[in-house]
Amino acid sequence: MLIAGPDTRVVELRVHGVQGTTPQTLVDAVAAVDVAGDGLGRIVRPADRLRRPAPGPVLQTEGRPVPRVVEGYLWGGMTSGGVAKATWALLFPFSIANVAHWMLPPVPERNLPAHLLGLGLRSLLRVFALLLTALLVAQVSVVTLDLLAAQCLRPGASCLTSIPTEVRLFPWFRTFLGLLPVVVLISVMRRISHVDWRIERREIAEAEDEERQPASGLPGAHVATDPDTPALRSLHVVMALSVASLIALGGPLKQLTASGSMGVAITVAWVVALVFIGLSMLGVLLLDDPTGGAPHRGGRWLRASLGRQPRRVLMVLSALLVLTTLALQEQLPERVLGADVTVQFVALLMAFVAVLFALLLVPAALLARKTWASLPRELRPWAGGWFAAPVLAIAGLLGGGFGAGVALPVRKALGGGLLLPDGYAYITLLWGVAGALALLTTFAVASFTGAVRWRAFRKGKVWAREASLLHSGRMRDLRAATRAWWWARWERNHGHHMILIIAAVLVVGAVLATLLRVRNVTPPQWTAPFSAFGVFVLGLLAVSLLRAVYLAARQPESGRRLGIIADIAQFWPREAHPIVPPCYALKVVPELVSRVQDHLRDPGTRVVLCGHSQGSLLVAVAAARLLEDLPAHDRERIGLVTAGSQLQWAYPRAFPAVVPHASLARLAGGLDGRWRALCRGTDPLGGAVMTWRRQVFDGMLLGVGYRADGSEGALAPALRGPTGALVLGGDHWLPDPQRGPFPGRRWRSGVSAHSDYTSDPEWDRAVAIAAGLLDVEAPEAPPLPFARKPETRSRDALGGS
């Protein structure tokens, strides 16, 4: 531990979690002012009455008080706020498919079968993502080309009667009106895929351009930009334009018929559309993973063929194909049957790819099992490393559901007896069966959970023995804490099970609907209630989403709530699907690293990165980059504090290749005891980070975890801090409700759960330890004085009289 000198100061750099926050809340001040950043990535400090940056409260250490500067990095503006960012929620199925790539199991070194399986899985993911784009375009074409242009605007239709017949008969009017929304949608998707965050520091941008792939084994080492993204983007745009043309020309199985030269032109355009679709699928199938790319590999020929100029030529030809299709369709027929056939054909292809992906994922997970076989069960990946398959299934089924959910309200709004494609009857049946199963499953899970909880409390079983240690002598607080511990533990242990149940329910409905459609069996009469319920579920899904987008654009608070979806999905770079919002981690992490390096230029400064919830992942990756880049004498001046973190129970288990348990152990060893994790048993979203297999024995909290020397093993019994917290290894277990109130400190009553970790007095102590100014194994300090005496009346273990 470095010895503090007279010029020592601590910079506490805080990073918030999902939903964003205000600058004042982040730095615990009445007012805050920007001191750096570009507006999207804002670095703020507390401000005085003249709006000048002010220092934070001093840190009390064993020897003397040390000056502290509190800074906060705000990144919420990258995921929420404004109409443009609100509409990103409409791309949620695309984002889920992209996240599934990062959930793949790790590929063991020098294992050829695992390497080939990894290549195949990544290729199938890109193909599935391409088909998801095609499905969206096909479903929009159902609404615009079939419902609106062909049926509603045909001469003599009792729909939109305010439009005169002369306008309806005007050449190319209906075709243009039907294709225009599709082309606008494709343009918007292309525009979104081009959006990227500008990194504030020039030298950081140059370092990012080098595409260095660190081999350190630290968290987030593979979170980097994908050089194949421009090629994938172009292939998706070509695919979307070609599908729109193919639908207008009759569909994938049968083209429109015409006589003479017109028939020849339609045939040529139809064949060209199929060729472009085939080239797009072949391109995404062959593009290799960027982390394995090398100049001598055969993939360089594919990348050369998809360079900037070839991509531009391909997209121009696709746009000309759409214009040619428009010219060939002087008058639309009464029904655009190609839309229905295309939706069903794409859906069947997606189902085939998803099943093949799930089958190949089984041996890939088994081959990767040796990387986590020695870990305890609570640290192993979810579903044995197979979790990407149900997530991909949810992405595909949500993509199909969103399209059908929009078509149903549009048909009802237009009126006039419009007909939806036959395939939509099976989609409504799918979601009706899934909705009914979801209700039954919810009732069963709620009943079982309630019965287990009632039986446990009736028998007096203590679910949270740690809470008894934290709230000794405060029986009223113990009762509230015990119940909150039970629910929080249930959510952490079974949250992924709920995702698996949702995927299973949707797949069961999809299998039933697919079997009926493949055999061309008309849904029996007894399925009518399910279909009606499916219409309600799809309509509710679409209306709720559109309403959320509308409110997000009009009300900032709603925008931040909607940002929860984007905050989780947008951490991951564009890999499987290029048409997703930009990855904010590629901007936040380099700018955090740069800010820390700026502070470390002062030899008396020590920097502690503090992250809450999702911010804990950002600061962990930033700390890993700093350990790679900084010299040894500077590495000793950085520390890490995480609060309400998912770095043990969620990220290593959902993303075992990117944030594996071994990478966290390496990070803990590199920080040499300067990584402190604040956790509450009442927090359903955050949990322990540095310890596991905890148990209470003879009034002591024991466990296994990371040691200061970087090894793993049994830890000494937990020490009690001066404010009642139990410190086991690197984890600081906070009493919730808080003890106190303490004179001169902010206090929060009630159960805080996942919020307001900085209000606990243990926060300052954790920052001091992370800064190397305090020894966690020092003799127990005298407790802080209470503003009120703790309750000491005798009660039972659960707080009863």
UniProtKB/TrEMBL annotation:
Location of region: Disordered: 780-801
Keywords for this protein: Membrane, Transmembrane, Transmembrane helix
Membrane-spanning segments: 124-149, 169-189, 235-253, 265-287, 313-329, 341-362, 383-404, 424-452, 498-518, 530-553
InterPro entries tied to this protein: AB_hydrolase_fold
Source species, domain of life: Bacteria
Biased composition (Basic and acidic residues): 788-801
The protein, known as: Membrane protein
Organism: Lentzea flava
